[in-house]
Specification:
The protein is α/β, with parallel strands linked by helices. It has two domains: 152 residues, Aspartate Aminotransferase, domain 1 (Alpha-Beta Complex); 235 residues, 3-Layer(aba) Sandwich (Aspartate Aminotransferase, domain 2). It contains 13 helices and 15 strands. Helix 6 links the parallel strand 7 and strand 8.
Length: 416
């Protein structure tokens, strides 16, 4: 697929027309939250204009809201190749993981073990550390490799034992872009232990299709606002597991799935926007992948194949360009032959500049990037970067262009 195949999609995102000092702004902040298509914005507005109500009422707008809720769960199920009753919505992935960790924590006992990694976002670390502390369980840590910041597989296997009850691991690092061999890791856990496997899919979900069945996920969290949608969180849970856990919620709420773990009034306008988001993904898949007639689920998966092809070109161009910039360091996989093992998200340092200074300088030039630890606190401490400001995060996605890659390379070279 050529890099121009997806160029027309940029027009679907109103934010990308923004200018900064007379030049187009370059949005490289997608790992922290992507921009959204116009159809998503319109769907949210349409719900608020014509169907805004609470759920389960005996009147028209409430019944329309009920359908909006059902549609959103079906859309999330198509994204993750799950069933709608296995999909739990909440305000964000962090809140959902904290909530479900309370329920899982009730099953832990003194002497049990919980495994977490240095590669993960803290949303898939701290909830399980706290659950272990509350239960008197032990926390075991999985390290990363120094050379390429990938998960240390020997360390992973060493962390497992007959006492392991929870294994929490990311599908991809939101800081350095490393993609983990998640299906293999889950297989090892399920063969050797009775533990549940909790995947943080938030970062990977922007770049690859996720299928929870072959992945071996027991629990998995993603964030629609990082998948070109509104601010929401989604938690997949195996039906049998969700039914076995005790939810923390008020008494009148339904005990049926997925209501069992959805607390309070949900973000209904966000649900409308999320269904439109999955509609956008399916449209991309049918235009650039599978022909008409295939299911929405198949079309969404095809969209991510198209995204991955474009992102491969952008990542290769970036890695080739940074080689000629003196004093610039990229943390993580830099071998162009291993691009399938990473997302196009790069943690960099420019000489001895503080990352905040670099981010400010780029921002003044119309290039929007993040600096700091991005909640990958364990990783930044492991890399020895946290005390000096973390790193600059440059994140490309399918709506970015080769010209934008060249522009950021030019500005980084100037700063260096």
């Amino acid at each position: 697929m050529s890099t121009s195949d997806l160029s027309a999609l940029r027009a679907r995102f109103p934010a990308l027309a923004r200018e900064h000092d007379g030049r187009p702004a370059v949005f490289l902040d997608a790992p922290g939250g992507s921009q959204v298509p116009e159809t998503v914005i319109e769907a949210m507005g349409a719900y608020l204009r014509s169907s805004n109500a609470n759920a389960h009422g005996a009147f028209a707008t409430s019944q329309e809201t009920d359908r909006t809720i059902v549609d959103a769960h079906a859309a999330a199920a198509d994204l993750l190749h799950a069933d709608p009753d296995e999909v739990v919505f909440g305000p964000n992935a962090t809140t959902l993981l904290l909530a479900i960790s309370r329920s899982v924590g009730r099953t832990l006992e003194p002497g049990d073990e919980v495994v977490v990694t240095r590669l993960d976002h803290d949303a898939n670390v701290r909830p399980w550390v706290l659950a272990a502390q509350d239960a008197g369980a032990t926390v075991r840590w999985v390290d990363v490799r120094d050379d390429d910041v990938t998960l240390d597989l020997a360390s992973f296997e060493e962390a497992l034992s007959e006492r392991t009850k929870v294994v929490a691991v990311t599908l991809a690092s939101n800081a350095v872009g490393t993609i983990t061999p998640a299906a293999d890791l889950a297989r090892i856990v399920h063969e050797r232990t009775t533990a549940i496997v909790v995947f943080d899919g938030v970062h990977l979900a922007q770049h690859r299709s996720i299928d929870v069945r072959p992945l071996g996920a027991d629990l998995l969290a993603v964030s629609p606002y990082k998948i070109f949608g509104p601010h929401l969180g989604i938690l997949f849970g195996r039906r049998e597991l969700l039914r076995s856990l005790t939810p923390y919620k008020v008494r009148p709420a339904s005990d049926d799935l997925p209501d069992r773990f959805e607390t309070g009034t949900q973000n209904h306008e966000g649900f409308a926007g999320w269904t439109a988001t999955v509609g956008y993904l399916a449209e991309v898949g049918r235009t650039h992948g599978v022909p008409a007639g295939h299911s929405r689920r198949e079309a969404v998966a095809a969209a991510f194949d198209a995204f991955a092809a474009r992102e491969h070109v952008l990542a290769a161009r970036f890695l080739e360009g940074v080689r000629s910039i003196p004093g610039l360091r990229v943390y993580g996989i830099t071998d162009p032959e291993r691009l399938a093992e990473r997302t196009p998200t790069f943690a960099v340092r420019v000489g001895d500049r503080h990352p905040l200074e670099t981010a400010k300088a780029l921002g003044e030039r119309g290039i929007f990037v993040w600096d700091g630890h991005y909640y990958a606190l364990e990783l930044m401490e492991r890399l020895g970067l946290q005390e000096t400001g973390g790193a600059v995060r440059i994140g490309f996605c399918h709506y970015n262009t080769p010209a934008e890659v060249d522009r950021v390379l030019e500005e980084l070279s100037d700063l260096a």
